[in-house]
Amino acid sequence: MASPPKVYGVLVCEGTVRERISDRTALVAVYDHLQTESFPADHGPFVIYFNVSSLNGEYEFGFQIVAPDGVTVLVRGKLPHPIACRDPLLSIDIGIGIREIRLPAPGCYSIRLLYNGAIAETATLRVARR
């Protein structure tokens, strides 16, 4: 059984760039809120970025974006392949691209990072009328 991952960040950004020489990930335009003229509003493309460590086992990572009602899942997805890791000191950067999401109303949207079906971490994206 895989141990729970340690999550160092769940962020929303416009993109990520992986530097080949340093093997570092640069995040482009990180944000935690959006403003729009009207609802429903379409937003995208964007990236959900997360950094995890303390991995010991095999992990299927995924995500859900949940509406302000706390129940309605607007978008869900997962990585195409499991990640197997036995080095708890190794830190892993992962970015998941989202083409577009329809935001039905203003409020706080939850971004849930999942591992093997369990919630590892939740981040909030605030959406407001301009």
Description:
The chain has 130 residues and is mainly β. The chain is built from no helices and 13 strands. It has strands at residues 6-18, 25-31, 33-36, 41-43, 46-53, 57-59, 61-66, 73-78, 83-85, 92-98, 101-103, 107-115, 118-129. It has a 5-stranded mixed β-sheet with strand order 3-13-12-7-8, with no helix packed on it. The chain has a 4-stranded antiparallel β-sheet with strand order 2-1-5-10, with no helix packed on it. Strands 4-11 form a two-stranded antiparallel sheet.
Unreliable residue runs = none
Give the termini distance in whole angstroms.
Answer: 47 Å
Major sheet size, sense and barrel closure: 5 strands, mixed
Structural class, by secondary structure, is mainly beta
The proportion of strand residues reads over 45%
- Percent range for helical residues? under 10%
Strand order within the widest beta sheet: 3-13-12-7-8
Number of helices: 0
* Broad shape: globular
Please give the structural blueprint.
Elements: E1 6-18, E2 25-31, E3 33-36, E4 41-43, E5 46-53, E6 57-59, E7 61-66, E8 73-78, E9 83-85, E10 92-98, E11 101-103, E12 107-115, E13 118-129
Parallel strand pairs: 3-13
Antiparallel strand pairs: 1-2, 1-5, 4-11, 5-10, 6-9, 7-8, 7-12, 12-13
